[in-house]
Amino acid sequence: MTMQLDHDQLHRLLEVLSDSDIQEFRLEGDDFRLEVRRNLPAVAVSAAPVAAVAAAPAAPMEVAHESSAPSTPPPPVPASRSDLVDVTAPMVGTFYRAPAPGEPSFVEVGSRIGVGQTVCILEAMKLMNELEAETSGEVVEILVDNGTPVEFGQVLMRVKPG
After folding, report:
1. What phi, psi does 11 have (nearest 5°)?
2. Are strands 112-113 and 61-64 parallel, antiparallel or unpaired?
3. pLDDT tens-digit series, residues 25-48
4. Can you give the residue ranges of every domain in the chain?
5. Fewer CB within a 10 Å sphere, N or C end of the chain?
6. The domain 85-161: what is its CATH number?
7. Roughly how many angstroms between the first and final C-alpha of the chain, as a whole number?
8. Could you read off the pLDDT of 94-120 as tens digits, one per residue?
9. Closest-CA residue to 45 (of 153, 120, 124)
Protein backbone atom coordinates (compact mmCIF):
# COMPACT_ATOMS: atom_id res chain seq x y z
CA MET A 1 0.00 0.00 0.00
CA THR A 2 1.49 3.34 -0.98
CA MET A 3 0.78 6.44 1.01
CA GLN A 4 0.59 9.90 -0.49
CA LEU A 5 -0.37 13.19 1.12
CA ASP A 6 -1.71 16.09 -0.86
CA HIS A 7 -1.22 19.68 0.29
CA ASP A 8 -4.63 19.88 2.02
CA GLN A 9 -4.10 16.63 3.92
CA LEU A 10 -0.65 17.75 5.04
CA HIS A 11 -2.04 21.11 6.14
CA ARG A 12 -4.85 19.43 8.15
CA LEU A 13 -2.34 17.04 9.73
CA LEU A 14 -0.13 19.94 10.83
CA GLU A 15 -3.16 21.82 12.22
CA VAL A 16 -4.18 18.77 14.29
CA LEU A 17 -0.62 18.35 15.55
CA SER A 18 -0.31 22.04 16.46
CA ASP A 19 -3.53 21.80 18.54
CA SER A 20 -2.30 18.69 20.36
CA ASP A 21 0.27 18.04 23.09
CA ILE A 22 2.29 15.81 20.77
CA GLN A 23 5.96 16.86 20.82
CA GLU A 24 7.26 14.48 18.15
CA PHE A 25 5.55 12.82 15.19
CA ARG A 26 6.93 10.65 12.37
CA LEU A 27 5.08 9.44 9.27
CA GLU A 28 6.78 7.31 6.64
CA GLY A 29 5.67 6.28 3.17
CA ASP A 30 7.37 4.46 0.31
CA ASP A 31 9.14 7.58 -0.96
CA PHE A 32 8.96 10.08 1.91
CA ARG A 33 9.50 10.57 5.61
CA LEU A 34 7.82 13.39 7.52
CA GLU A 35 9.11 14.30 10.97
CA VAL A 36 7.58 16.99 13.15
CA ARG A 37 9.37 18.09 16.31
CA ARG A 38 8.14 20.87 18.55
CA ASN A 39 9.68 22.65 21.53
CA LEU A 40 12.89 20.67 21.17
CA PRO A 41 16.46 21.89 20.61
CA ALA A 42 17.09 23.00 17.03
CA VAL A 43 17.48 20.18 14.52
CA ALA A 44 19.07 20.52 11.09
CA VAL A 45 16.56 20.41 8.24
CA SER A 46 17.97 18.79 5.12
CA ALA A 47 17.59 20.34 1.67
CA ALA A 48 15.77 17.71 -0.32
CA PRO A 49 13.79 17.43 -3.53
CA VAL A 50 10.70 17.02 -1.36
CA ALA A 51 9.89 19.82 1.04
CA ALA A 52 9.01 20.76 4.57
CA VAL A 53 6.20 22.94 5.75
CA ALA A 54 6.50 25.52 8.51
CA ALA A 55 3.83 25.46 11.21
CA ALA A 56 2.04 28.33 12.93
CA PRO A 57 4.38 30.68 14.83
CA ALA A 58 2.51 30.04 18.11
CA ALA A 59 3.72 26.43 18.07
CA PRO A 60 7.03 26.27 16.17
CA MET A 61 7.62 22.92 14.52
CA GLU A 62 10.38 21.61 12.35
CA VAL A 63 9.67 19.27 9.49
CA ALA A 64 12.41 17.33 7.71
CA HIS A 65 12.47 15.01 4.75
CA GLU A 66 14.87 12.25 3.91
CA SER A 67 16.95 12.43 0.79
CA SER A 68 19.65 10.31 -0.75
CA ALA A 69 21.59 13.53 -1.43
CA PRO A 70 23.94 14.67 1.34
CA SER A 71 22.73 17.62 3.39
CA THR A 72 24.71 20.81 2.88
CA PRO A 73 24.26 24.00 4.83
CA PRO A 74 22.88 27.01 2.96
CA PRO A 75 25.59 29.28 1.56
CA PRO A 76 26.70 32.07 3.85
CA VAL A 77 24.65 35.23 3.44
CA PRO A 78 26.19 38.68 3.82
CA ALA A 79 25.10 40.46 6.98
CA SER A 80 21.81 42.28 6.63
CA ARG A 81 21.77 46.07 6.64
CA SER A 82 19.34 47.56 9.13
CA ASP A 83 17.59 49.53 6.37
CA LEU A 84 16.71 46.36 4.40
CA VAL A 85 13.98 43.77 4.95
CA ASP A 86 14.95 40.13 4.46
CA VAL A 87 12.56 37.93 2.45
CA THR A 88 13.08 34.45 3.88
CA ALA A 89 11.96 30.99 2.86
CA PRO A 90 8.92 29.91 4.91
CA MET A 91 9.67 26.27 4.07
CA VAL A 92 12.25 23.96 2.57
CA GLY A 93 11.86 23.76 -1.18
CA THR A 94 13.24 24.69 -4.56
CA PHE A 95 13.45 28.40 -5.37
CA TYR A 96 12.14 29.57 -8.74
CA ARG A 97 12.32 33.18 -9.92
CA ALA A 98 9.74 32.77 -12.73
CA PRO A 99 6.32 31.09 -13.04
CA ALA A 100 7.67 28.68 -15.69
CA PRO A 101 10.87 28.03 -17.66
CA GLY A 102 11.38 30.65 -20.36
CA GLU A 103 9.03 33.17 -18.74
CA PRO A 104 10.21 36.47 -17.23
CA SER A 105 11.21 36.52 -13.55
CA PHE A 106 8.69 37.78 -11.01
CA VAL A 107 11.21 40.38 -9.82
CA GLU A 108 14.71 41.59 -10.66
CA VAL A 109 17.17 43.67 -8.67
CA GLY A 110 15.74 47.19 -8.88
CA SER A 111 12.10 46.02 -9.22
CA ARG A 112 9.47 47.92 -7.22
CA ILE A 113 7.17 45.54 -5.34
CA GLY A 114 3.96 45.93 -3.37
CA VAL A 115 2.48 44.02 -0.44
CA GLY A 116 0.91 40.80 -1.70
CA GLN A 117 2.88 40.75 -4.97
CA THR A 118 4.37 37.37 -5.89
CA VAL A 119 8.17 37.56 -5.71
CA CYS A 120 9.09 33.90 -6.33
CA ILE A 121 7.84 30.32 -6.18
CA LEU A 122 8.96 27.67 -3.72
CA GLU A 123 8.27 24.15 -4.97
CA ALA A 124 7.49 21.79 -2.13
CA MET A 125 6.25 18.22 -2.62
CA LYS A 126 5.53 18.97 -6.29
CA LEU A 127 3.31 21.89 -5.28
CA MET A 128 4.17 25.37 -6.48
CA ASN A 129 3.84 27.81 -3.56
CA GLU A 130 3.85 31.49 -4.51
CA LEU A 131 5.74 33.63 -2.01
CA GLU A 132 4.16 37.07 -1.67
CA ALA A 133 5.87 40.26 -0.52
CA GLU A 134 5.05 41.31 3.03
CA THR A 135 6.40 44.82 2.49
CA SER A 136 6.51 47.23 -0.40
CA GLY A 137 9.75 48.68 -1.68
CA GLU A 138 12.64 48.01 -4.05
CA VAL A 139 14.37 44.64 -4.48
CA VAL A 140 18.07 45.38 -3.84
CA GLU A 141 19.49 41.84 -3.63
CA ILE A 142 18.49 38.38 -4.86
CA LEU A 143 20.66 35.91 -2.97
CA VAL A 144 19.54 32.57 -4.45
CA ASP A 145 19.99 31.20 -7.97
CA ASN A 146 16.98 29.91 -9.88
CA GLY A 147 16.34 26.20 -9.30
CA THR A 148 18.35 26.08 -6.08
CA PRO A 149 17.17 24.10 -3.02
CA VAL A 150 16.62 26.40 -0.03
CA GLU A 151 16.30 25.85 3.70
CA PHE A 152 13.58 27.07 6.05
CA GLY A 153 14.46 30.62 7.12
CA GLN A 154 17.13 31.12 4.43
CA VAL A 155 17.30 34.69 3.12
CA LEU A 156 16.12 34.70 -0.51
CA MET A 157 16.21 38.42 -1.27
CA ARG A 158 16.38 41.80 0.40
CA VAL A 159 14.02 44.72 -0.05
CA LYS A 160 14.54 48.40 0.73
CA PRO A 161 11.16 49.49 2.14
CA GLY A 162 9.51 52.54 0.68
Report:
1. -60, -45
2. unpaired
3. 777 776 667 777 766 444 344 333
4. 7-64, 85-161
5. N
6. 2.40.50.100
7. 53
8. 999 999 999 999 999 999 999 999 999
9. 153
